[in-house]
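We modelled the chain as a single entity of 340 amino acids. Its sequence is:
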Amino acid sequence: MLLEFTEKGIYCPPAKVYIDPWRPVERALITHGHADHSRWGHQYYLSTKTAKPVIRHRLGPIKIETVEYGERRNINGVNFTFFPAGHIIGSAQIRVEHKGEIWVVSGDYKLEDDGISEAFVPVKCHNFITECTFGLPVYKWKAQEEVFAEINDWWRKNQEEGKVSVLSAYALGKAQRILHNLDASIGKIYTHGAVENTNEVIRKQGIALPDTIRVTPTIPKKEYPGSLVLATPSALGSPWVKKFGTTSLGIASGWMALRGARRRRAADRGFVLSDHADWDGLNQAIADTGAERIFVTHGYTDIFRKWLEEQGYEAHVVSTEFEGELTEMKESSEGEEDNE
């Protein structure tokens, strides 16, 4: 096969490169900056131009080259092209073509245009490697305009009651999507240190975000009522939250579609908002590729593979170390030392 699934990651033998490898390799092509897809230790990295700053912010002084979306890169006779995945800023699907055989490694993706990430582009192929983080029919997302209307209304109500609205969001991706779509005219927006560190990287790329204020020990407690605080998931339930006084805790996550998920996280409000495709999005993306063979990497893999087979696809479950939204939650705690 043109692509092989090895103990180090997805490998292309003719090009001698890996895609999102989870063990150190010589050459790695990276779909996006989340921790389960871009790891430290490779000798050379290749990513999109807009993904590079965050990857370098996370991993340090690595050797990394970039490509534009749609730009073809030939490596040892194999053509690689990066197309938008719509997951987060800079995220990509990687099209691999050699001797008439075409594969697409989708990484993580969503079909809805969130207004800040480069919008998903369907790519024709013979073999499609897909996540299925939310690969059950119960996961069907509302239009994000409805979700952000709910978030803004919640914030306004809390403001009227003199509360601080503390909203949990992953430091990379979800936080910037929320900031881009919030009604910033409601009040001040404060950010956890890990969120603000990522915001600074994004702003330096020329990507506009609303004004935010980093939470520091020097800010008087009286400044917070009526404001919104964008926190990492790991900060909820920690002493860090107590500094804000009377709060209403909200969580923005695809997992909020499950009954009981909000209660288990001790949140007052759950907003169903994910940077991964829902059930309909997964099925639409797969259909649009025209692929005959589907390789499912992470999520509800066995259930989703069986569903695909019932729809007439040749489907396979592949063992990887990708974890979707679970790893994003872990990543959001990076930089927790800057949480005062």
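As a brief sanity check on the tokenised model: Confidence is low (pLDDT under 50) at residues 328-340. The chain has nine helices and 19 strands.
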